[in-house]
Each structure stands twice: as structure tokens, then as C-alpha cells.
Amino acid sequence: MADFTYRLRPAEPQGPSILASERAGSNVHVEQLAGHLLWRNDFLQRQKRIVAILERIPIFSKKNQLNMARPDRYQLGLARAKSLRRLSIEHGWDRDDYLMADYLVDEMGPYALQTSMFATSIREQSTDRQRAHWLPKLERWDIIGCYAQTELGHGSNVKGIECQARWDGHTKEFVLHSPTVTASKWWNGALGRTANHAIVVAQLLLPEPGSDTDSDSPAAQDRGATGSRSRYKSYGPHQFIVQIRDMATHQPLDGIVIGDIGPKYGYPAMDNGYMLFHQFRVPHSALLARYSGVDADSGAYMRPQNPAVVYGSLTFVRAQIVMHARLVLARAVTIAVRYLAIRRQFADRDHNHDQKTTPGPAPEQAVLNYPTVQIRILPLLATTFALHYTGEAMYQLYHGTREAIERSGDFSRLAEMHAASSGLKSLCTTLAADGIEICRRAMGGHGFGGASGMIALNNEYLSKPTVEGDNWMITQQTAAYLIKRMTAVAQTLGLAPKDELDLQFQEYLAVNANSNTNGNGAGNTTATAPTPSTRNFDILANDAELVRAFRHRASHLAYQAYRARVVEKKPWTSLMINLHRLSRAHSESLLVSHFHRAVFESSAAGADLDLDEPTLDVMRKLFRLFALFTLDASASEFLLSGAISLQRLQAVLPTVQDLMAQVRPHAVRLVDAWSVPDYLLESALGSHDGDVYNRLFRRAHRDNPLNRWTFNPDWRSEEIVMGEGAENARTRLDALALGLDNTGYERSGLATTTKSKL
Amino acid sequence: MADFTYRLRPAEPQGPSILASERAGSNVHVEQLAGHLLWRNDFLQRQKRIVAILERIPIFSKKNQLNMARPDRYQLGLARAKSLRRLSIEHGWDRDDYLMADYLVDEMGPYALQTSMFATSIREQSTDRQRAHWLPKLERWDIIGCYAQTELGHGSNVKGIECQARWDGHTKEFVLHSPTVTASKWWNGALGRTANHAIVVAQLLLPEPGSDTDSDSPAAQDRGATGSRSRYKSYGPHQFIVQIRDMATHQPLDGIVIGDIGPKYGYPAMDNGYMLFHQFRVPHSALLARYSGVDADSGAYMRPQNPAVVYGSLTFVRAQIVMHARLVLARAVTIAVRYLAIRRQFADRDHNHDQKTTPGPAPEQAVLNYPTVQIRILPLLATTFALHYTGEAMYQLYHGTREAIERSGDFSRLAEMHAASSGLKSLCTTLAADGIEICRRAMGGHGFGGASGMIALNNEYLSKPTVEGDNWMITQQTAAYLIKRMTAVAQTLGLAPKDELDLQFQEYLAVNANSNTNGNGAGNTTATAPTPSTRNFDILANDAELVRAFRHRASHLAYQAYRARVVEKKPWTSLMINLHRLSRAHSESLLVSHFHRAVFESSAAGADLDLDEPTLDVMRKLFRLFALFTLDASASEFLLSGAISLQRLQAVLPTVQDLMAQVRPHAVRLVDAWSVPDYLLESALGSHDGDVYNRLFRRAHRDNPLNRWTFNPDWRSEEIVMGEGAENARTRLDALALGLDNTGYERSGLATTTKSKL
């Protein structure tokens, strides 16, 4: 019998006709809103142009990715990375084109460090002489680089890294050495199999004046690991540029052990690596010496001119993560909204339909019509826009700060930016990471399937709450800044506010400082301070009051933290949970403020919104939905700060539910505006045309390699693939389980010729 | 140069010595607590015995799993499933032994349906005659089965499935038919590649009396899909047992299309499948007819004796999921506690150490000492015990209910059990699933790595919030039960309570009913009902009051729901969010109540706790920690219900922080008591001996197949593996990306001989 499935269609109504009527039922202006969101750098046209190129090239197809062995994913990743580099030249891509292609391929690949941390270090930390030597090689991609900072034993605490760079004054060399297993470099992208050069971060060890540093003798070399330590002084972590592999054989150089650290949650195509040194010598010129260095003659340390330079670059990375979060969450929400508008499940329990006009059972409802689904998805839809406007604000702050530093060496805004970027990195990546999973779960069974497009998205993004400053750790930096600012305001009451934060804190103190400082709970503020005066902002009827409620709650927590730390001198560690909550409250206040300003004060702020009235009206509802939903999630903090009353709180959920009902008809058009191409979504559930079930079925029926094989299900036989025989199967699967056959490679015939000598 | 890494050790202090001193610093009685938790079915001895067997067999090694292609994972899964079956016979395993082995292998494999839904259906839904025919085949495993209920278009709403079983009175056969693509069976485990028999759930279509059902003619057959529908009446979903594949060739039978649906979030070794029928005929005996059937002569329907039977079996599955959750969460918490006790990061910010006695930098702190880490991990540690005691309570309820049904056909407790199991399934799987990810994130970079042991655990468990009743959907069932019970109590005030829930509701109503019913907000209870009388339970000083606060809040939400639905007749759909919150509140109240009873009223309840005083003391602290942490997370509901005051709430976080400091020294011993073997943990971070860094390093350096190959990193060349040449690489990677080479199989030489004819 021929395959009869080709004749079949999904049950009515068809996905495409559902999305068509969803789109017809809303007056949100998609093109206008898309242009409003994605105007920068000609994003939309660029995206269209690059997608068209990538879609035609077989290795950029993503359809088989989830079937592959991890070593194959790396190989495909390397092939793609090379191809992107060649396409750049072929099509004359500029940097934005290249970044767009990288974004669309949606894979952290083996060249990812080349244009980021490797290039950044060379550019920013090198002397002019070093730049002249390395930049041409970098720009021609004659060398492939990575950035080796974190170690097996130390991640966030960079000062604690163990890798040593000991100065040998006799040979004028640095001796790189890993004294322990934990000193092994670890997690460094592109190091494991790809890079031939690395920026190595190591403790700079210089001889104590007058000590004997005859490190040429073998005995002294051994002491280098342990015994000689006391005669050297560490000047902290410094960057060295080091060739790590032979340029012809690609084997690690003698005295270096390198490898890939193995599979992880996401990033299958990236060879995160480990590396250890054994008394490995590099020349004096290896130390990147723009801001600090070692005098080759005297072995004396030359101090950095401005330590804030390093500090600044992490800040910029965090700002970029904040700016990126909106598009990640938009992907998940796009898939969820489209699929849940199409998916039908259960009839309304109270539905009383007329059996005469419509015989048969009551019609099933679109899943997105259920409030229990809306409460998970629609606030996240609103969050994409909240992230957008805060990303835009970060962009302004980023470029303003950067320009001030580069033009006039003015670092004054760096502290504000550092505080904002730390707290927002923590909050925004948590919102996006959790949001992806909330979307996935809302899609039920099909959300769990590979055709959802959610698996890679989730796995990859789950690194973001950890990297570039753990989300729970870096909130201390934001809180410390706020305490400092609150201290200044509290101790100079009455002065003119120098910025919005001053004003916000002053307003809070004007009402609350006395009741708190004179209260009987002074000895134990965080626990039993009297409830502050209830402001009870009119959050439901007045949007500006809603913003004020967020500011008030943040100010309250800042004031509590100031009291505890500055006035009562409590241990920092004991306050950490409160500090985390403070950072979150402040960051939520920033999100709400930026969103409010964008949709209510556009002309005042000088930026034209370019949105017609119906679209703007929906955006304002989304603002209210985001703010009230966020408030409800931390309602007790608003109550404790006196920002709202219990009575007011009771009306929040009904209002949220009402707002969701108003936003619901526009959901499909709103996600359309994010303009995420099908190529990037890689989702049968979320494609623009809504042909969900045909795509799901075809993917399983045509594109699933497992279905090309017939297996022997009989437990009495050890045979697995029909016809291979029991003995073959046994040998093959033992080797597979133990990882002895390279997961397919020994079998492929490639194994004998190309095995590494490592 | 020889591999110098073998000489190296991790930096001091070593993991094993840290865990030794952690263990020495607590007086929790590990063996006693382990026996207390895991006494049932001789769990601990059985676990030890089975681990020893599995650890010696190569295919049960898990170390290469994350490197494998998905088709290889299926094959390994099939080999393991067969091996477990053979081991059962070889070692004379009983059912508990087999289940233990399955639990330890920790993989949903291709035989998983055989002893569960396939066997259950045959045993429970068959007539005696059907049993006599099928049970011997089932028990000898001559047939391999699956359970085909859910479809591409319908999951939770079983009544909506489209697959048809039309009775043909002429031939006395049922005609199975899939009229649409969405009628395709979907997600059914073991169907895709393994099973040769299936329980197929289809709409039973019987001819309307008097209609022409000449279905033998080809024309009528075509109408079977569409036109003839009106002449048939559906009697709803029924189960049929169907042979689906040829027993010799293992090809699908003519008229059936089957395949695996492809990769998904977890379960790589399970072949979840799809299946469509084209006018496929099965005999009258295929309908499993214990409770309902079709008269072969008249074609008349015979009604089910008791519809609650089917309903009961889902309830039992949910109860089992609740009972299982504790061990899943215990695994994640074990890994997190051990690793975070070993991992050092940063010195205390306020540390002032004496440079004379301890020169050098201040010592780094164990990460688990930071309150921001404790607040994520230690409440979850407490949650493992909360889940345990509720699991035990469910076990009692389960067996009591089951016994009542089987012995005397008494279904009276089924409604209570259904409500409890639905709400608890939702809450407990959410707690466990979210808890796994919270643990993983708390472990920073290494938590993201494959050697954490968290990847598979997370991926697999993420199905649980969706399967067997979506966690947001089934809470309606609990809420409906609670509304029914509240209605009965509210309308019969003054009667003697028939159980604890009656008493709980009566207590609430005694204080609050009047203030609510007479309030001015009667028309809009959920939004603006007056705040109920503040009870302000003494949650911090009195454990019984803490339990009462949870019951009060649940009663309050039940009363609000009753008012809205029963008194004010609001639409069910509009109340769904409130109903979800009600179910959660009630379920949390159950967790807190069971935990409290177990550690405070053991003698009263008749079960001897068998714990010495120091251990019991820690358990009581864990109870307080769990309850107060849970209360804090939904604090606004407690405030709104009047269970506590704002003033009281302010003291909750400091109390939680204090409890965590008291529990912290016992954390390692507490997770030890869960007795999760290293074989199951499969984690370098969480192994019992604490040798974290050596394990992490060895795994990367020895056991990572990617490191056996040398790659060509030069972007100018299309060559990938060194030496293979550009042309080979291009062909190979194009095929890989498009899934054309079966992810390695074509290359292996196996491809040509065993390709399926599908």
C-alpha cells in the first residue's frame, strides 16, 4: 500500500486560516511597530538579505541538529564558522552583516572568540608595538584565538586564579605554569580543539627585591610550582598572548596540555576547553602591556594607569546582554502565541450552544483564550517590550559613557552604568531564561518536542544567568551603589538633587526618614522597623503613580539596606538576600520607568514614537500589564514598603485579567512585529504561516533518521538493528556505551588516519 | 613531553577532607534517617544489590551518553531494556528488583510501556476470555506493547480524539481509520520503532439504528472517513488491542503507517511514535470489553458498569508521580549540597584576618555559607522531606482507596484522592522541576557542564509538569472538589464535621463568613471583598499555628471561589487563575500538615519515628524552614486572607535566615541520608567522596571522544578533520546537516543492508 498519509489534512480549522483571522481582528500596525522596534542598523532589511543567503546553503540547515552526536555538532559548527568567514569576503559583508549571520545561525561556534574577547584584548590591552605585530594577523584571521581566564577552581573570583606567570630575569621570559589541577584553564571557548593562540590570564609573579631567582636550574624550576613561591610576589592577574598549538600540525606545543571539556547544557558546537602549562616559557613581549607592565631590565612592575579600564569592558558586555534579551524572549513568545492561538483544547465549561444551529459537540477553545494560559504568556509578551525600551536606554547610556571615556577620559558615568548593567543583566536574563521555559511548558506536549524550536533556545540561553557575572552575585554591585547613593542623600538632606535617583531617594526620605529613624526598631531595622507611612499610590487609575510605586518600593529597600549597613554596621554577608531583593526592585523600577517614558512621554523625551493611535493604545495596555503583573509577583514588598494597601492589592489581579482580555486580540500581530524569521525560529509550532500540524507531521515522517532503520524488538536476541546479528550488536554497543568508538567515527573508516596524538 | 597532568592535585583544601569535616560537624544520624525514609520494600539493601550488578556491565555505563547521536541513544536504550529483561530471569528478580534496576539505569527505555500502561489495560479492561488469550503472551514478553491514546491534535482532552473504530456488522469487524493528519497517534512511547502490539484508543462508532451501513462497498469505505459520519453515532473513546507490525519482518502491517516522532527535550532512548490507520480491520475481540462492549449480533452498545474505573487509574498514576518526586529532588539537592560545601569562592567582605598568624589573602568561603546560596538550596533540602511525608500520606490513601475498591467496590474515597493527587501532582512536580534548575544555577559554571549530572535529570523531569495532566489544567479538578466541599459546609453550618477538611472550613467560616457575606462587595467578591478578620497566627513561635495559617489561607481562597462560582454564578473560565491559586494553597497546606504531623505527632499518629533527638531536632527546623519559606513566597495571599499581619511578615525572612544558619552544618549529612548512589548521580560534582576536581578533570581529559581528533582550524580550507581533505569534508557535512547520512550510519556500512522499507 502506498503511503496514504499524503492525502490527509489536519482537522478543521486549519492553522493558516486561524492566523489569518487573528491578524484580521487587530488594528496593530505591524510594519510600523516593527520599524519602531528594529530600526537601528537597518536591522530588518539586513535580516532579510542574510536569511536569503543562508537558507540556500546545506550546512546552515538546522533540521538534523537534534539528532547529531556532539562531536558531529562541533564539526558542523566549525564548517559553518569557516563558511561565514568566507561568505563575509564573497559578499563583502560588513561587521553588522557578519553579526547578523551569526545571530541567524544561532549557534555559539568555534570562531566566536576571534572577534570578541580575543580581538578586544589585543586591541585594548596591547601597546602600540604589540598592536602593530598582532592586529594584521588577527584581521587576516591568520591566527585563531581564544580567551583563557577562568579555571577549574576559579570563575567569578578572578583574583583567585592559580595559573602563574613567573618572570625569569635571566632569560627575560615569563614562565607559565599550572601548579595544581584546579589551576587548569577551564570553560574557555574555542580553546579545546580550534584555537592556535590564546590570551592567557595568569598571576604575574615578580621576584621580591634581593631574592635569589636563579630559575634556570632544574631544581629551581621545580620549586617554581611550590617552594619558590615565597620569594615571588604576585601582582595579580595579567593577560599574556600565547601561541598554544603548532601552526602546521595543530598539536599543542610541548609543555602544554589542551582539550575540550566535554558536553554541556548548550553550545554543542563550541569547544570549551581546558589547558595546563608545565614551565612553559613565553617572551617578555607576551605580556599585554598597554596599562601595566614589567621592566625587562630591572624586573620592576609598572602600575596600571587606570584600573577602571578592565572593569569597564565587563560592564559593556553586561549591557550587551541586556540589549540582546528582548529578541531571545521575543522568539519564545512568538512561538507560544502563534501555536496557542491555533491549538484547540476543550470547550468552554459554561458553553451552551444551540444544537439546532450547530449540531455536535461544543467547539473547542483556542488555548490562548484561557486565563491560566494568558497569565503565563501575555505578561511575557509585554516583557519583550519592557526589555526593548530598557535595552534602548542601556544603549544610550553605553554609548554616552563610552564616548565620554574615549573622547575625554571621563569615567564619571561608569559607576552608574556598572550598577545599572549589573542589576539589569541579572534581572533581564532571569526574566528571559525563565520566560522561555514558561512558554515551553504552556505549550504542553508539543512544547516538549524537538519541533517546538524551544530545546536549543532554552539550553543555550540557560548559560546567561551564570556567565559574565552570576545573577545572584552581581546584584551586590548594584546594591552597593544604591547604598552609597542613599547614604549621600540621607546625609545631605535638602541639597538639590543631581539626578533622578537623588530625587527619588529624597522624595522617599521626605515622608519616611523620620518615622524610621525615630522608631523603636532602630537596632534591628530589617526585621522589625515600623511599617512606613502608607503612600497607597493610585496604581490602577494613574500610570505615573504606578511608576512611583515601583520607585517607592526600591527606595524603601535601599533605605533599609543603608540603615542596616551604614548606620547599624551589620555584616555584609548577613544582608545579601536583602541586597539581592534591593537590586531586583531597583531594576524592575528601571524597566517600568523606561517603558512608561517610551509610551507616554515620547515627545517630551525628544524621540518620536512613530506609532499610530491604535498601536500606541495597545502598547500602553502592555505597559500596565507588565507593571501590574510584576507588582503582583512581589506584592508583599509593595505592601511592606507602604506603596500600596491591601485593599488596592485585591484589585490588581482582576485588573491584570481585564488587561489580558484587551491585549489578547492583538497578540498575533504583536509578535509578528518582532519579525523573527522562520529560519531562526526553527519551529513547526511557531512558523509565520501557522501550518503547525503538517509541519510537525512532515518533520517526523520525512526528516527523522531513526525511521530509516528497522530494529529487532525481541528481548531474547541481543541483535539491535535487524540483520546485524547478536555478536556485532554486542561489540558495537559496548564500545558505544564506553565511548570507545568515538561515537560512530571508528566505524566510519576515518578513525585510523586522523586520530590525534594527544 | 609525557602527560604531566597525572602528577597534579587540586589546590587545598581537598574535597574529600572537606566532606569529612562537614560530616564530623553534625550529629544527624545518617543510617537512622536513611532507614526512616527508605524502609519500604527493603529499598536500601535492594538498591545496593542491584547497583553492584549494573555497574559491572558495559552497556549500563552512562559516561558517554551526552556525546551520542539520538539514534544511538535509542539503540543503547533497546540493548539496555533487553538486558534488564534477561537479568531479571538470570538473577530471579522480583518486580521490585526490576523497578529498582529501571530506576537506577535512569532512562525511559523502549520497553517502558510493557509493564505499565500496556499491561494495565490488558489486565483491567479485558474480559476473562481476552485475559486468557493475552496475559500469557504478555507475561512471556512474546509481544511487545505500547499504549496509543494521545494524537497530534489532542492530548489532555481525550474525548476529542479523532481516530475512529467503526463497527462493520457485516464482517463483525471494527474498522480503524485516521480521517485527518491530526488524527495521527502521537507521543506514544515504544510505538515508534519497538512495539508490535498496541492498545489503540479510538472513538467507537456504531450505526444509528436503521441506517444503511453497507460498509463493504469501496464507496462506503471512502465515506467512512467523512460522508458516512452522520449515519454513525460515537460512543466515545474505547480501547482496542491491535497487532501493528509483522512478527517476523517487524514492518508495519498493511494499512498502518508508523514512525518515531523525533528528538525531544528528554527521553532520547524512548521511541515515542506516531501512527495512522487507513481502513484497518480488527476483529470483534479487539475491543477490550470488561466494562463496556458491542453486541456482535445486534451491533448494540453495552454500557460501562462504572465509569470511575478509568478515572481511578489516572488518579493512581498521579499519586505515583507524587511519591516519586522526593527522590528526584533529593538527587539534585545531593549534588548541590556536596559541591557547594566544597566549592570556595571569595573571602568574606568583612573578614579581618591576622596577617601574622595567617599570612596571605583571606581564605575563600564555602559557597554554601552565603545566604544567597542557602536561600536557594536549603529550603529545597527541606522540600525533599516535605515531599517524602506527603508521598507517604499519598501511599496510605492510595492503598486504602485501592483496597476499598477491590475488596468491596467502595469508590467513596476516590474523589478525595483524585482531588489530592491532582493538586499535589501539579505542585510537587513543579517544585521538583523548578528545584532541579534552581540547584543547577546555584552551581554556577560547573552546573552548566555535562559532568554536573544535572542535564539529563533536568531534561527528563521537565516532562512531568506536562504529562498525566498538565499542571495548570488539573488544578481545576482539585478546586472543583474544594468548592463542592465548601458549598456543603457553608450550606450546613453547625453539623458535626465528617473529616479534617470539614473542620478546617467550619473554623474559617465561624470567624469569616458573616463579615464576607454581609460585606458590601457581594457582587464582586474576588476583586473587592472586604479583608477578612485578621487572625494573625503566631507563625514564628508556634508550629501548630504555622500549620493553621496555611489552612486558613486555603480556606479563604476556597470560600472566595465558592462565593464567586456558587453564589455569584461567575463563569468558570473567568475564575481559572483563582482556582489554580486555590489548588496550590490547598496542596501547600497538605505538604505543611503532613510534615508537621510526621515530626511532631509521630506517636499520636501511631507510627514510630525511630529518630534520635538530635536528628528529630534538625527535622523540626527543616519543617519550620519549609513552611516559612513557602509562606514568604506567597506572602501576599497570607496577608489578604488575614492569616498574618504585615508586622509579622517582616520577621519571616530574618527567621528563615536564622533557620538556614542552624540547618547549614547538617546539610551534608542530611543529603547523605537520601542514599543516592554515585551510579545514579552520575555527577563529578556530587559524588559521595567529594573528589570533585579530579573527577571533572579526568572526565574531560580521558573520557571525551572529541579530544581524540585533530581539526583544521584554517578558514581558508574546507577540510574539517586534519587529513580528510576539503572535498570529503564538504560532502560529509552537507549530508550530516541535511540528515541524509543517518547521522553516521551510512558511513558505517550498516546502512545498505538494513534500511527499513517504510
Low-confidence stretches of chain A: 215-230, 515-530, 742-758
The helix-and-strand class of chain A reads alpha+beta
**Main beta-sheet strand count, sense and barrel state of chain A:** 6 strands, mixed
Mean pLDDT, all residues of chain A: 90
Per DSSP, the total helix count of chain A is 28
CATH superfamily of the largest domain in chain A: Butyryl-CoA Dehydrogenase, subunit A, domain 3
| Alpha carbon gyration radius of chain A | 30 Å
- Report how far apart the termini of chain A are: 54 Å
Seen as an oligomer or otherwise, the chain set is homodimer
Strand count of chain A: 11
**Main interface: chain pair and counts:** A-B, 186 and 187 residues
**How many separate domains make up the residues of chain A?**
5
Indicate the overall shape of chain A: globular
InterPro entries (chains A, B): ACOX_C_alpha1 (IPR055060), Acyl-CoA_ox_N (IPR029320), Acyl-CoA_Oxase/DH_mid-dom_sf (IPR046373), Acyl-CoA_oxidase (IPR012258), Acyl-CoA_oxidase_C (IPR002655), AcylCo_DH-like_C (IPR036250), AcylCoA_DH/ox_N_sf (IPR037069), AcylCoA_DH/oxidase_NM_dom_sf (IPR009100)
Pfam family, one (chains A, B): Acyl-CoA_ox_N
Keywords (chains A, B): FAD, Fatty acid metabolism, Flavoprotein, Lipid metabolism, Oxidoreductase, Peroxisome
Family (chains A, B): Belongs to the acyl-CoA oxidase family.
